[in-house]
Amino acid sequence: MTNLRVEKVADVLRRETRPTIERWLLRVDSEPDIISVKLTAVERCAHLPAMFRGIVIRLRNPLPIGTRALTSDAAHDHGLLRRDQGYTAAMIVEESRMLQVSIFETLQIHAEVFDISDLLLDVMVIADEVDSQLAQAMTSFTAEVDIN
After folding, report:
1. pLDDT at 24 over 90
2. In whole angstroms, what is the distance from residue 9 CA to residue 126 CA?
């Protein structure tokens, strides 16, 4: 009889934040449109630790799927910063898509530690939270600039 260790998705994502961000950066660095905006790795990844904290918090404190998630100051600031850095809206959306792929890759790498009955709901929560933060970033990205 095998002794299987079961972990929560939130715990794995918290522990695997850095490797997941590194995989995300590899994807982003291979996207010609995105890397046309010259940023250091630190500048490009600066928003991600806060985003991961938001995902982990959401996984540990579930809301019904589709519920407006909590407001994220980090997501708002990220949209403003990307606008100032010269990103297009499509670049922000592509970064977000690559983030979801990188997160799901992390889950796949660690699939053997999850209780399958919880996994599907957690994947839905992750997608919902990433999309919510993307929407908040896009709201600030597209907001009119107040020139006074």
Report:
1. yes
2. 10
| Residue-wise pLDDT tens digits, 28-61 | 999 999 999 999 999 999 999 999 999 999 999 9
Q: First-to-last CA distance in the chain?
A: 71
**pTM of the predicted structure, to 2 decimals:** 0.90
- Pairwise CA distance, residues 111 & 9, whole Å: 9
| Of the candidates 85, 109, 104, 94, the residue with the CA atom closest to the CA atom of residue 28 | 94
56: nearest Cα among 6, 98, 92, 7: 7
26 lies in a domain? yes
- Convert the pLDDT of each residue in 93-119 to its tens digit: 999 999 999 999 999 999 999 998 889
Q: Is residue 1 part of a domain?
A: no
123: Cβ–Cβ under 8 A, 6 or more apart, which residues?
9, 104, 107
Task: Return the CATH number at 29.
Answer: 1.10.490
